[in-house]
Design brief:
Elements: H1 3-16, H2 21-24, E1 45-54, E2 61-67, E3 78-79, E4 82-84, H3 91-103, E5 110-115, E6 119-121, E7 126-135, E8 148-155, H4 156-159, E9 165-172, E10 175-184, E11 187-189, H5 191-203, H6 224-230
Length: 233
């Protein structure tokens, strides 16, 4: 699939109606604590994330970051560039600003094509609005030292590969959760980021299904070390 085809699919889905929460839930932990009703809760704060695609010899690539280990929230987790929307700021502009601050991508090099379904994150009280943007060439990344440990790209082919979709059992606060994730570039991509990517893939007709019996608990129960490495979501 080319960038032009991705753009057409995204624009068509936005015009016709996005897959929405049902699509996001494909990559949500079960049970998912604090899951809200379809309407966002009162008092929800607005955040934006940039789902940035660019061309490569292996096809379209997607930009991901690994958050620095010293951050107070979601330390060490894989995410999309993004953050809180400032007062009076458009969601699209916030996503571009955050991408510039976190990984050095120039806003002028990105063409925004649309916004996917907002995702409520109960633990932080934010609703993240995923902004899809395209670059005509691979960006030059300059990660922010205190915020970003690693910037990396994965091809759409990798992201859509069913073999990259797995599940683990996670123990937290005396409860056990069944957690789906993408295994990408040596990282576990789970939680809100995985849910956003699930809708994006669904828009492209390649939605993931981690609940097949063949993917059941491939990596067993998450250890204390794993919880420390990948943070809490």
């Amino acid at each position: 699939m080319t960038l032009a085809e991705i753009e057409a699919r995204v624009r068509e889905a936005i015009a016709a109606g996005l897959p929405g929460q049902g699509s996001q839930l494909a990559m949500a932990p079960r049970p998912r604590p604090g899951w809200a009703l379809p309407e966002l809760p009162e008092g929800t704060r607005t955040a934006a994330a940039l789902l940035l695609l660019f061309p490569s010899t292996d096809g379209p690539c997607l930009v991901l970051t690994k958050r620095a280990s010293g951050l107070p929230q979601h330390a060490g987790q894989v995410s999309l560039p993004g953050g809180a929307v400032e007062e009076g700021e458009r969601i699209e502009d916030a996503a571009l600003r955050e991408a510039h601050e976190e990984v050095g991508v120039e806003a002028s090099s990105v063409r925004v094509i649309g916004v996917l379904t907002p995702l409520h994150i109960p633990v932080s009280g934010f609703a993240v609005h995923p902004v899809v943007g395209l670059c005509g060439a691979a960006p030059e990344f300059r990660p922010a030292d205190r915020e970003v440990e690693r910037v990396f790209a994965v091809t759409l082919r990798e992201l859509a590969d069913p073999a990259r979709v797995r599940r683990m059992t996670r123990a937290r606060d005396g409860k056990t959760y069944d957690v789906p994730y993408f295994d990408l570039a040596g990282e576990m991509v789970w939680g809100a980021t995985a849910m956003i990517l699930a809708e994006f893939l669904d828009v492209l007709g390649q939605g993931p299904d981690p609940w097949k019996p063949s993917r059941d608990n491939e990596h067993g129960t998450v250890t204390e070390r794993t919880r420390n490495e990948h943070g809490k979501r």
